[in-house]
Specification:
Blueprint: E1 11-14, E2 20-24, H1 28-36, E3 51-59, E4 65-73, H2 77-89, H3 107-112, E5 123-124, E6 127-131, E7 139-141, E8 149-150, H4 174-178, H5 185-192, E9 196-197, E10 205-206, E11 209-211
Antiparallel strand pairs: 1-2, 2-3, 3-4, 5-6, 7-11, 8-10, 9-11
Length: about 210
């Protein structure tokens, strides 16, 4: 079942009996959250007019269907809704999904809490002179604790991620199911839509990271 409500910039899709998603403009309330939450400010490489507020259904680590929120570039918003619909269909578990603004724009705190997120006006990790794809709303970090960023020298910053250094599925816990491998359906879903996965990088590994 698929339902689209036409408007200035509003999309509501039901891909099956349960999955729902909504795409909206960045209204005054969301703008205020972003500015107060330090995730957007003047000088960022993308304007608020080119971003979209996306709400999607997902399965949490307790097997409950919940509504998460992301901010992405409006040109990929429909694609994001479609991808999360597929993740919902296969019941891929996501620990939580809040705006980085809820963490005062602090990427460390967002990751530390296991938060799946997208837009954040910040530089590339390890290079303050270059904008991250997150600063354009064109990247998503999915279950960052189970899918850590591993530096060139093998360092993992978050202690809870150390248990996931070895990339393999071990048991049927939600945390284990959240681990993303190159052959997993999750990865294939993103790749068939033209997204790049940080787990394929050679110098570093960023298993949580998908960008378009």
């Amino acid at each position: 079942m698929k339902k689209i409500i036409l408007g200035i910039f509003l999309l509501h899709i039901t891909l099956n009996a349960e999955y729902t998603a909504k795409i909206s403009k960045i209204n005054k309330e969301i703008k205020s959250r972003m500015i107060k939450g330090n995730s957007w400010r003047k000088g960022c490489p993308v304007s608020l007019e080119n971003l979209a507020y996306v709400q999607v259904a997902y399965w949490d680590f307790h097997g409950r269907s919940k509504i998460g929120e992301l901010i992405v570039h409006k040109k990929i918003s429909k694609n994001v809704v479609s991808i999360f619909g597929e993740l919902y269909d296969i019941k891929y578990p996501i620990e939580k999904m809040h705006l980085v603004s809820d963490y005062k724009g602090n990427d460390w705190k967002s990751i530390e809490s296991g938060n799946t997120s997208a837009f954040n006006c910040r530089p590339v990790t390890g290079n303050k002179k270059k904008w991250s794809k997150h600063a354009y709303g064109r990247a998503i970090d999915l279950n960052p604790i189970q899918n850590p960023y591993i530096s060139k020298n093998g360092h993992i910053s978050h202690k809870a991620s150390l248990a996931y250094r070895k990339r393999k599925h071990i048991n049927k816990t939600k945390g284990d199911q959240a681990v993303i491998l190159g052959t997993d359906i999750v990865t294939l879903i993103f790749k068939k839509e033209g997204w790049i996965w940080g787990g394929d990088w050679k110098a570093i590994k960023d298993y949580q990271h998908f960008r378009k």
